[in-house]
């Protein structure tokens, strides 16, 4: 489950926030398998989609994380949850997306595709209301 600013997100929802306001981000991983999983890292990578096949990940002047964009997960036991909290600060208006991945920690080989990617989260940063 992914919550942005307290709202549950999926690929069909656009979350609107205001430039300059910290936006809480919560990612909950539930282990539905019969075995513990881990260790791995959860990484949140913001990008802009130019709708021509190009994704711009070079957004250090447009978005900043309050805290880290990578979280270490030791292990998650069967039928248990692990929840990670962070926050984003949008510095400019626009449409942004979050690519959320799970990958093996301390290893260059990524997990199989079925493990690593959650649907992208669409966030629209707008001007503050005065």
UniProtKB/TrEMBL annotation:
Q: Which GO cellular component does the record give, naming just one?
A: trans-Golgi network
Instruction: Name the InterPro entries on file.
Output: Ig_TRAPPC9_Trs120_4th, Trs120_TRAPPC9
Top-level division of the source organism's lineage: Eukaryota
User: Ranges for the Trs120/TRAPPC9 fourth Ig-like domain?
Assistant: 16-125
Designated name of the protein: TPPC9 protein
* Gene source species: Menura novaehollandiae (superb lyrebird)
Lineage of the organism? Eukaryota, Metazoa, Chordata, Craniata, Vertebrata
Q: State the gene name recorded for this protein.
A: Trappc9_0
């Amino acid at each position: 489950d992914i919550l942005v600013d307290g709202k549950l997100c999926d690929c069909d929802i656009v979350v609107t926030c205001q430039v300059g306001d910290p936006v809480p981000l919560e990612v909950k991983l539930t282990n539905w398998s019969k075995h513990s999983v881990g260790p791995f890292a959860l990484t949140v990578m913001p990008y802009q989609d130019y709708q021509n096949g190009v994704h711009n990940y070079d957004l250090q002047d447009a978005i900043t994380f309050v805290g880290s964009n990578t979280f270490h997960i030791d292990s998650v036991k069967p039928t248990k949850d692990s929840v990670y909290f962070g926050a984003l600060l949008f510095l400019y208006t626009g449409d942004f997306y979050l690519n959320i991945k799970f990958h093996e920690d301390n290893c260059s080989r990524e997990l199989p595709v079925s493990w690593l990617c959650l649907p992208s989260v669409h966030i629209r940063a707008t001007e503050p209301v005065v």
